[in-house]
From TrEMBL:
Keyword tRNA-binding (UniProt): no
PANTHER family registered for this protein in UniProt: METHIONINE AMINOPEPTIDASE
Name assigned to this protein: Methionine aminopeptidase
Binding site for a divalent metal cation 1: D100, D111, E239
Gene Ontology BP annotations: proteolysis
Length: 258
């Protein structure tokens, strides 16, 4: 299903996007050395409920997961890049933490992810990984305009990741979003320009470049959910929900405060 939202629905998407962004920034500020991933999940639950939102994750049970996800935010540490299931782990200095959050508010979903380094350490590999995903995300957003095609976005993202020297996995990537979290079209993180669905105003997309330092192969953790690099290398993930407008792409998942 591909939804095209009307202006009133896009306005509601802005509210959902701001909520997601603000929660992610709050969780980033609280994610210090000694913080437990289960505390991050609990803080996220409280903020969603206080804002009148609805989690997209708690009851989420797709074919690639083992039963309902059962948590409110994805927490990927170091080699865990996607669908990181919160567990009893205490963050250490230098950990690379990826937080991914999707929330529905007033009937519309928004989805975003950030990666950052915990504590004072700044490992060069982690800095490079995060920077590549952020540049790739910016390139994908710049390519998203009316009349362009999904392949143009995928090509822009993949070009940045490839130039940075990272293998690209296209099994999981960006997606359409609207009244539900995951919709068509699929937006691979590499592709050919001029191919795929033609973008039009009212289309919402969640663009999410992610990379692993030295492999494109994923493995599934014993929790049945968390996807990790097959080699144990570090990973990073950046994501925004955007709305296609007559003037280009509007980022909906920007925080309302610094």
């Amino acid at each position: 299903m591909i939804e095209i939202l009307n202006p009133a629905e896009v306005a509601r998407a802005r509210e959902a996007g701001a909520l997601v962004a603000d929660i992610l920034q709050a969780m980033k500020s609280r994610s210090t050395v000694g913080t437990n991933l289960l505390d991050i999940d609990d803080w996220t639950r409280s903020m969603i409920n206080e804002a009148g939102g609805q989690s997209c994750y708690v009851d989420y049970a797709p074919s690639f997961g083992r039963g309902p996800f059962g948590h409110y935010i994805c927490t990927g540490v170091n080699d865990a890049v996607l669908h990181g299931r919160p567990h009893d782990y205490t963050l250490a200095d230098g950990d690379l933490l990826s937080l991914d959050l999707a929330v529905i508010k007033n009937g519309i979903a928004a989805d975003s992810a950030i990666s950052f380094i915990v504590g004072e350490s700044r490992p060069a590999e982690s800095v490079a990984l995060i920077g590549a995903t952020e540049r790739a995300l910016a390139a994908g957003i710049a390519a998203a305009r009316p009349g362009a095609r999904i392949g143009d976005i995928s090509h822009a993202i993949g070009s940045v990741l490839g130039e940075a020297g990272y293998p690209v996995n296209t099994q999981f990537g960006g997606h359409g979003i609207g009244s539900t979290m995951h919709q068509d079209p699929h937006v691979p993180n590499s592709g050919r320009p001029g191919r795929g669905f033609k973008l039009r105003p009212g289309l919402l997309l969640a663009l999410e470049p992610w990379v692993m330092a030295d492999t494109a192969e994923l493995i599934t953790d014993t929790d049945g959910w968390t996807l990790k690099s097959a080699t144990g290398c570090r990973t990073a993930h950046s994501e925004h929900t955007i709305a296609i407008t007559s003037n280009g792409a509007e980022i909906l998942t920007l925080p309302t405060r610094a």
